[in-house]
Specification:
By secondary structure, the chain is α+β, with helices and mostly antiparallel strands. It has 2 domains: 283 residues, no CATH class; 155 residues, no CATH class. It is 49% helix and 13% strand. The two termini are 36 Å apart.
């Protein structure tokens, strides 16, 4: 943590840093403006008509087909190529998690699907895309005002890209989740279609909203409860109430930290939480404080005042997710003067998996790319969302480790609840696309018929079959020794 003297020095250089922040804002505006340029040339009705006209070039039914294209790369080669830059000792954990099921495999293969989607038909209309839009990357979380909303919560791959890519990945994830639950494909198809139908209908409604109305829209806890049956409402409300009673850091603290060798520290629980050698050197915290001071400058003024009320205590590596395993993810323990804990997560950000196919990001710093995309797509974001360059030059984005987050318990959902969840995810994706980009043309293209919904049902089934084949190829590669996998107990 920066000292009071360092903060005095920070104030003395404030004009230069204000210029730096202004430059960051200019880059952010430039990077997101190109997805909305048509808004300055035509009216909403004209843009909807332009979207409708696209049907003559690409029918809505055409989105339903999937067949591996000639020359499709070996999925194992693509997976191994994605290991570049990861911590090698953690890569076997990544493959161990992906081996668990085709659905788990799918969660870790956003890059593989991006390569496939690049060969699929699209309208040429772009949005600020999530980039890894599967059902586990949605959930509940608390806003800074301590209200619970339901939204997308992972933006590691966000980039301007075809809107179809997000909805196709999301629809397919419901087919795979249904199969993992032992449900027939008729149910999986129903969920994929319901997700697409919800997306289509909400895109149409959002396209008619005025800008401020759309900007303030969000899917609240009450909205989610209204979708549920009375019995499911009771269980969901209990989870929401429990999440709001305590912050994520208060819940995490007894599990992650304690007195170690006479001082407060994060507990090592290898291989999933550990202090690397660099974190054991005497000057580590001093070096980390300098990084922390740079991160602090990416926050709004009021958030910096709040951050300054905590002191840096310790930092360690933590393994998170499936696709992210092997990327550097530090958890940082901070304590207030009155001994309340707060955990921040510094997660490594690299080029989006969409970039080889959708074009490079205009942000040179990938942490800033993630933060800008998240702020643009979410109705409200984490209090401490920012970015920084690490001690060895890697890019990171920063947020709280958990803050009243409510993870979807997909493995406990029955068919009816999964169907409801599919509708909610389609709604949220439509809101995110509409907030971040002009969607009048997309609304005009999709129209009011069920053609696109049914196409997503067909695509979801076909691509789920592909994911299962690729998962089988991974299992074969592990058996042959081409890939090493570590399965956690």
């Amino acid at each position: 943590m920066a000292t009071r003297k360092q903060h005095m020095q920070t104030r003395s250089t404030e004009p230069a840093k204000n210029r730096s922040r202004a430059k960051d804002r200019a880059v952010e505006a430039k990077a997101t403006a190109h997805v909305d340029t048509v808004a300055h040339r035509s009216s909403p009705d004209e843009r909807r008509a332009m979207g409708k006209a696209l049907r003559s070039k690409l029918s809505r039914d055409a989105h339903g087909s999937w067949k591996a294209h000639a020359g499709r790369k070996d999925p194992i080669q693509l997976l191994k190529a994605a290991d570049a830059g990861r911590l090698p000792e953690l890569v076997p954990i990544r493959y161990g998690r992906m081996l668990q099921s085709p659905f788990a495999f799918y969660r870790g293969t956003a890059g593989l699907m991006a390569a496939d989607l690049a060969k699929s038909p699209d309208t040429g209309l772009r949005v600020q895309a999530c980039g890894d839009c599967h059902l586990m990357n949605f959930g509940g979380f608390a806003t800074p005002e301590r209200n619970v909303i339901f939204d997308i919560n992972d933006f590691d791959e966000t980039l301007p890209a075809p809107w179809e890519w997000d909805i196709k990945r999301l629809a397919t994830s419901f087919v795979l989740a249904a199969r993992s639950a032992g449900l027939p494909d008729a149910k999986g198809r129903q969920m994929a279609e319901a997700c697409a139908r919800s997306y289509r209908r909400h895109i149409g409604r959002f396209a008619e909203m005025h800008p401020l109305e759309l900007w303030y829209s969000r899917v609240t806890a009450s909205d989610m409860l209204d979708l549920l049956s009375p019995s499911d409402q009771k269980r969901a409300k209990a989870r929401i109430d429990a999440a709001l009673k305590r912050t994520g850091s208060e819940m995490d603290f007894p599990k992650l930290a304690g007195v170690v060798h006479g001082r407060l520290a994060i507990r090592d629980m290898p291989p999933l939480i550990y202090h690397p050698e660099e974190a054991r050197t005497p000057d580590f915290l001093e070096s980390l404080s300098r990084v922390f001071a740079s991160y602090r400058e990416t926050l709004p003024d009021d958030r910096r005042v709040l951050l300054d009320r905590y002191q840096l205590v310790d930092a360690a590596i933590k393994v998170v997710g499936v696709g992210s395993v092997g990327r550097r993810c530090w958890i940082v323990l901070m304590m207030s003067d009155s001994n309340e804990p707060m955990f921040l997560q510094f997660k490594e950000a690299v080029a989006s998996v969409l970039e080889p196919y959708a074009g490079a990001s205009l942000f040179k710093h990938h942490g800033q790319r993630v933060v800008a995309g998240q702020r643009l797509m979410q109705p409200t974001s984490d209090l401490f969302l920012g970015w920084v360059t690490g001690l060895k030059g890697q890019h990171f984005y920063v947020r709280q480790l958990r803050d009243a987050k409510i993870k979807p318990l997909v493995e406990t959902m029955n068919a009816a609840l999964l169907l409801t969840y599919a509708k909610a995810c389609g709604w949220v994706l439509a809101r995110a696309h509409a907030k971040a980009s002009d969607v009048c043309e997309i609304a005009g293209y999709l129209g009011t018929s069920s053609q696109f919904d049914e196409a997503m049902g067909s695509f979801g089934l076909a691509y789920a079959d592909q994911a299962e084949k690729d998962h089988a190829a991974l299992k074969t590669a592990v058996r042959q020794g081409r890939i090493t996998a570590f399965q956690e107990t």
